[in-house]
Design goal:
By secondary structure, the chain is of the alpha+beta class. The protein contains 7 helices and 10 strands. The longest helix has 19 residues.
């Protein structure tokens, strides 16, 4: 999925000539700590609540407020993973999207990214979950899928978390079967170490509970 496909039309940008107090008003209205700033149609940067308060004069134009600029925007044709990387590394609640000429097209909200990740990881689909610890040079999703398919199960999603301090990786797999006891036994027979598993009603309810909790936290 490309960045342009997740653009929200809800949050409108502010012109550099707008007063800082207006930015604070819209931050409160949208319940975010950042607002996109444009000069005409061109993206200029992000203004933060902190920068405005540090300035100390709410009547100043946004052109007088230090803006976050470097790396804050993504091109409309970049992959959503680039958007997530920007949001994570810069701790952004919104990620502006621009075209090749720097024209502002809109923003991608944190909510849109969470919804996308939920769809990508099949959160709404019923199925069992297995968390395994695997040596990085021994990891083969193709082999794991083959083992699962022998037990009439299929991988719906997979996620890998690595650590620079370890040769082991943590692999989280979601399958299209609720009862995955047989799949786990087969994986363990092939040398895969299971750290945790969630199946039947527990897996679906746990995912929904975690997702709902995250939504509630973001809406505080």
């Amino acid at each position: 999925m490309l960045a342009k496909e997740l653009i929200s039309e809800e949050i409108q940008p502010l012109q550099v000539s707008a007063k800082a107090v207006i930015a604070l008003h819209w931050m409160d209205e949208y319940r975010i700590g950042l607002m996109p700033v444009v000069d005409g149609e061109l993206y200029v940067g992000l203004v933060s609540e902190e920068a405005i308060f540090n300035l100390g004069n709410f009547e100043e134009a946004l052109s007088e407020v230090p803006l976050a600029t470097i790396g804050t925007a993504v091109d409309q044709h970049q992959h959503v993973f680039d958007v997530i990387r920007n949001a994570s590394s810069l701790k952004l609640s919104i990620v502006p999207v621009v075209d090749a000429a720097g024209k502002y097209l809109g923003v991608i909200t944190q909510q849109a990214l969470i919804d996308y990740m939920a769809r990508m990881n099949s959160v709404e689909s019923p199925g069992g979950i297995v968390v395994m610890e695997v040596a990085q040079n021994n990891y083969s999703l193709a082999e794991i899928a083959r083992i699962a398919e022998a037990d009439e199960a299929h991988v719906l999603s997979s996620n890998v978390v690595s650590s620079p301090d370890s040769s082991l990786i943590e692999v989280t797999l979601k399958f299209d079967r609720l009862n995955i006891r047989q799949v786990i036994q087969s994986l363990e027979r092939h040398g895969y170490k299971t750290k945790a598993s969630f199946f039947e009603k527990d897996s679906t309810e746990d995912l929904h509970d975690r997702y709902d909790s995250l939504m509630n936290f973001l809406n505080i």
